[in-house]
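Subject: Probable membrane transporter protein structure
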Amino acid sequence: MAGASVPVLVALGLLGLVGGVGITAVGPGGVLPTIGLFALTGLTPAQVAGTAIVTHVATGMLATAAYTRSGQLREPGTRRTALVLAVSAVAGTPLGVLVNSYVSKRMFGLVLGVFVAGVAGLVWFREHRRPAGSRAHPPTAVVAGMGCAVAVAAGVVGIGGPMLTVPLLVALGVPVLESLASAQAQSVVIAGVGTVGYLAQGAVDWPLAVLVGVPELAGVLLGWRIAHALPTRHLKYALITTLLALAPYLALHG
């Protein structure tokens, strides 16, 4: 964090706050700190991913506790989905951390840009998809495969998991709040395993992790309240617009 200007530090803190809101209100959002660390600092791809992913340990735990309190994670089907996602993350996350070590800064920017654009498309699809007639959760094999793939991607770019998992679960017919709850539990495992992997490489900037992570925690609580109290349609469209606007910049920034 040494040498960073005050506006940059403020911007990183704000991105942490907004990212936290997005994590629990709509799912996608956790990538915003990663974007800020990549675009506004001189960190390497491993340091960007490692510093970002460590913040999701606390946010994932807080969000899991919040959705347990509100009842979603007490429902057997949601609990089963969350458990399968968490177990599959143990296998997928180390592979993502390993892949990151072979990624140049230019390639990291390109991957992050494509990733961000893809997530914006998933959120748009989720918003325009008709609600599923059935509230049943997908088969275990489907959830496990999806969870492992998400964990690999999350390990590469340094996110928790809800960013991809929530839109995918909703597309499979799982209700939004149940999808959000399941993804938070997965996020704890992805972030925990990813943190161990990046710590082994010495790729975590702790001052920046605190700067981003503390506002992110506040945003998680705010986003959880928003998800339960208000229609999030406008927030979703704002997120889609922001992600689509940022994608080309990220792809070229590297």
